[in-house]
Amino acid sequence: MGNITLQQQLEKKILIIDGAMGTMIQNAQLSADDFGGEQYEGCNEYLTLTAPHVIKHIHEAYLQAGADIIETNTFGATSIVLDEYDLGHLALELNIEAAKLARKAADAYSTPEWPRFVAGSMGPTTKTLSVTGGVTFEQLAAAYEEQARGLLLGGVDLLLLETCQDTLNVKAGFIGIMKAFAAVRKKVPIMISGTIEPMGTTLAGQTIESFFISVQHMKPFAVGLNCATGPEFMTDHLRTLASLADTAVSCYPNAGLPDEEGCYHETPDMLAKKIQRFAEKGWINIVGGCCGTTPEHIRAIAEAVRGIPPRPIPASFDVHAVSGIDPLIYDETMRPLFVGERTNVIGSRKFKRLIAEGKYEEAAEIARAQVKNGAHVIDICLADPDRNEQEDMEKFIQQVIKKVKVPLVIDSTDERVIECALTYSQGKAIINSINLEDGEERFAKVVPLLHKYGAAVVVGTIDEQGMAIGAERKLEIALRSYDLLVNKYGVSPRDIIFDPLVFPVGTGDEQYIGAAKETIEGIRLIKERLPQCLTMLGISNVSFGLPPLGREILNSVFLYHCTQAGLDYAIVNTEKLERFASIPEEEVRLAEELLFNTNDETLNTFIQFYRNKMKEPKKAKTELSLEERLANYVVEGTKDGLFADLEQALQTYADPLDIINGPLMAGMDEVGRLFNDNQLIVAEVLQSAEVMKAAVAFLEPYMEKKESSTKGKVLLATVKGDVHDIGKNLVDIILSNNGFHVIDLGIKVTPQKLIEAIQAEKPDIIGLSGLLVKSAQQMVVTAQDLRQAGISLPILVGGAALTRKFTENKIAPEYDGIVLYAKDAMEGLALANQLQQNEIEYTKTEKHETKPEKTAPTVIAAKSNVSTDVPVFVPADLERHVLKDISLPHIIPYVNWQMVLGHHLGLKGKVKRLLEEKDEKALMLKQVVDDLLQQAQQEQWITPAAVYQFFPAQSDGNRIYIYSPEDKRIMIETFEFPRQQKAPYLCLADYLKPVESGQIDYVGFFAVTAGKGIRELAQQWKEDGEFLKSHAIQALALEIAEGLAERIHQIMRDRWGFPDDPDFTMEERFAAKYQGQRYSFGYPACPNLEDQEKLFRLLRPEEIGIHLTDGYMMEPEASVSAIVFAHPEARYFNVL
User: Could you tell me which of 929, 931, 834, 901 has the C-alpha nearest to residue 682?
Assistant: First the structure.
């Protein structure tokens, strides 16, 4: 069966590849004897020899289910993996036999109209070059070569490198395959399938774009995705790949995530529905299943995509693209792309010194600094004549790939050094450079590396006669090089970058007079005649030998003119690049004179102008007075230099207390002003508070015990029944670092406990916090109890449940003292300051004797117009599903960063846009949170868990009856929900079939948590003065619980038979634009918090560590529970 048939079939239909081999082997419940003994148990590949009938049966099951392509049982059949079972010596035999076994099965089912194909499965092995190490590039390539040879000898139709997690492994695999093709004298098509982790990259960090760009030179017939965590995590990556790839696109996902019992949550029907949607979008050519999928899944998928046309495969890939860990896909608007030049031993003394001292990691920091300042790619040159270039390259490149994600330019004239570097680069690098100085010799040595590893190449305009100075000559060499590279050596025009060479204008050398102008003209000519190729220049050569400041100006002006002429890549020092727009006109003129009319006069004028000129230095910190500096540390939120200045302040101030109440407090006042002016955000205020706390702690040993810097004493509490304390903690931090003495009574504080504390502590102000609707009522009760105890101290209230209106009309009338509402911590501080300075003008709202309104009789005849004729959505099962140890990366994509960074940490504006625009504040905060997340994962601070279940249910008026999952005739729970008193008269019960319909409907419940221990951790950090971390970890835990709720709700929609569309974005998910709705008790549609108790009886969330308090609140605070409806018209509403 020639592979032409595979190509023909691809054009005709969406091809079906088989499902999981491992899952089927597991389901076969084999004994140790089947594996050839206990020591080989779990080595599935060995079954090809010990139990071939089992493998044959699995192949046949998939062929019967409709698979066009079946995979050999060789996923782990390299000697590297087999050595773990001491079976490495059998690698070749196992691959040959597995291929023969699959070949025989496929041939038995093949017909001329419906050919079946065999793919030689080549897994990622158990080692990754970029992440785990433990194997060399050469060893891996050799192991893959042996595997490919066996598969080819056994008769496979194609080779499949699958579950690729590290592109370096794929490159080693490709080199192994090419060697096997040569050894066996047989070539077959190659298919490559990568695995993208939930965070959106491969394990080794590449995005799908970088991955594709990095494997493109292998000319695979198909590139795609497999494994991962189920289809929804593939959606964005598939969409991207389908729009980018000039190959077929494949997709064979896992059957979702396994639960506690190891059961995968995607049923055949659910998985097929999702893949069908991918097919309808026109994204795919080959589909199937990975872990957890069975012949039933494959049959359902084959049915679902039958008749849907395959994705049309584009004829070519028409852009210049290179990659590191991140992709760089060229676009005209990006010009000029900057190539960071400082990691070059020829051009940077500092870099040369670090390499000579063996400080490779420190040297790699130079690359990081170049990228930070805008370099799109990094040029690496280690050609120091006094050292071993290859050794240095090998050691340095291993450090640099850990520090920067951008593509690399490998700058060397030694092809062995270039090849060594390419074995460490996951991406598609740029090789710098080749030329025709020795005829075609360099071309012949270096171009094969482009085809072997994937790279673009820089071609210098030099030939046998030497370097081209004139523009026409530059073009002539470029045209000759192009012809050879494209037509003789098979290089894509878009991978050719011409360097038209730059010569110094300041050396007075006769032959270089007018050379700068010729270079600019040369760029224009090359771009005109060879529009698909790119150009690159080492800009700073032009100013060689001139005064330092003059060099920066000249470089910038020269770059401007080169860019106007069409330059694509500029090799520059990104840390010292003058912006053309900010250069004074006179200096631009001087530079242009020198560039375009180079002679002794223009040169001397230029040199004289810059000879003694220095850069204007920025005003240094030391020019500020000590007071200004101290205030500034607080405002800037930095401790850098703080303690030295505090030492100095102790010499000049008689009393340390004056330092706190003077300059430091002035800094805090300024912080408050800037915050109210929207110039600072919550996170920055917390950093300022950290500085304040550190300063006070430093000064405390010098203060007498009797001294207290306090403006007054504040007692804080979250009211009875409420466990939310993130807002209250914020108030504590802000007040205590602004001169108040704060006593925090914690959460769930009863009025009695509060009264006792007030009598004991005698505070000046009381602060009450509450998040839930119920807490607002609790504040009214608390105010009444305080009044009866004869207390009339000022009260500040705040929290999500409250409004100014509620405070004035409901709480204030119940109390004898002042009651003020603070919308946030900073307003709380302002009010506390005003209270202590008697600046509050307060008029109390009197309690109105409200006449009882004429209420309609309780039997509201009005009904809502929610449709009653919608179909019943039947869930896949009625089992209780418990998910523990859920990995954080699976939840992160569902976290709403607008809430974390915007709502909790105070970033103003659209977070997503700010991050895209690389806003400094947004990036700083995201970094803080990302570091915390990484730590949380390592230390297991956040341990997400979930439980969910569907129940049969019906409605009866405003009631919902819940029936036993085992016996739908037994009622096990009743909920009664309030109905809106005015149109549209909604009630949650409307979303279920009524009893009189005779139809059984279904409702879901879930409870999720971010795990326990967060409050204690946050408290510890708060005490240690790490306020931002303390606040951020609480915010993160809350939003991870919300994100997990979002994820579990999505799984429930899947299992209910109405999965989200593949085009469904996270923004739409956060806005609840899906079918059905979830409602949490205590919120407006079902305000009765006591209903939590019923949910707990049904679900038993105690098993995952969630408990109910006396006030029906969940502990830990970062937990979410809900009742879930499937009704298409379900929406949020308010009954209050």
Answer: 901
